[in-house]
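Reading is simple: the token line describes the chain's fold. The lines below illustrate.

. . .
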Amino acid sequence: MKKLVLLGGGYGGMRILHRLLPNQLPNDVEITLIDKNPYHCLKTEYYALAAGTISDQHVRVSFPEHPQLHVHYGEVTEIDINNKIVHLKDQEPISYDDLVIGLGCEDKYHNVPGAEEYTCSIQTIDNSRETYRKLNNLGAGATVCIVGAGLSGVELASELRESRPDLKIKLFDRGKIILSSFPERLSNYVQSWFEEHGVEVINGANITKVEPNVVYNHDEPVECDVVVWTAGIQPNRVVRELPVEKDAQGRVVLTKHHHLPNDEHVFVVGDCASLPHAPSAQLAEAQAEQIVQVLVKRWNNEPLPEEFPPFKLKGVLGSLGKKSGFGVVGDRPLIGRVPRLLKSGVLWMYKYHNG
């Protein structure tokens, strides 16, 4: 039997499983999925889990079941590409014939002293649970500082405002206006929403140090009770330690068929892959579709596609609490109720088709 090993049951890994199973997987191939959790996690909803507006159950989706799929629970510690072995914490290593690395990302702290030690995170489900515990144990009138006003920071701040209106929320943004890479009309809408709902947006921020209950903005101390870090991501440590070519962001450089240039049996999907778009669940799924095509054609001894069409991403949707939102769909900015309803619909469809 040939062994396909998937590292991580994230959005890319799940799309690969659902495309191969039940009908495209040859009888002589078995799949081993390695993940720390016994379920697929909806990472795009971690902000709501941390804010306390949804339960843990809402961000879990069961892995598919199939006689040729074996789910192995464990933490990957090292990948030995030369010997085709995956090392696991406190467990026996697992060998592979083909490997898909989808280990996701971690917070990037930009060498800010104290940031890793004294801030909360929403990068994993465990991080999000711990952040939920700290945020929702705060007394009335406590101050929460959220560092980083990208999509995650904006959604967390707005959801926390809805969950805990008694808290003082400060959102630190490096730009002159929030979400500055989005259309100006959309950025103005989100900035105004925060002003109207009593969230303090601190534009032009530069966090230089973090200490217990203190954030330093341009070296000026800002006292708070909890700090949540949403100011950038980097590939998983295991991927960062791989002796392979990487781009300026530390993501793995791949061929047009999504495998290592010098090893056609090692693929990288999702946040760890060097791709012409910002990391997202949508991008990981689009890439996974192409990886499946490569695997199936190779297993069937068929020629690989000479070129793949460019990724067609549908857009970005974000929430501002449960009743408002924002987004860009087909280059068209959307604000208000409609993008929030669209996001809820997309989430429902995903859970319906993958559950």
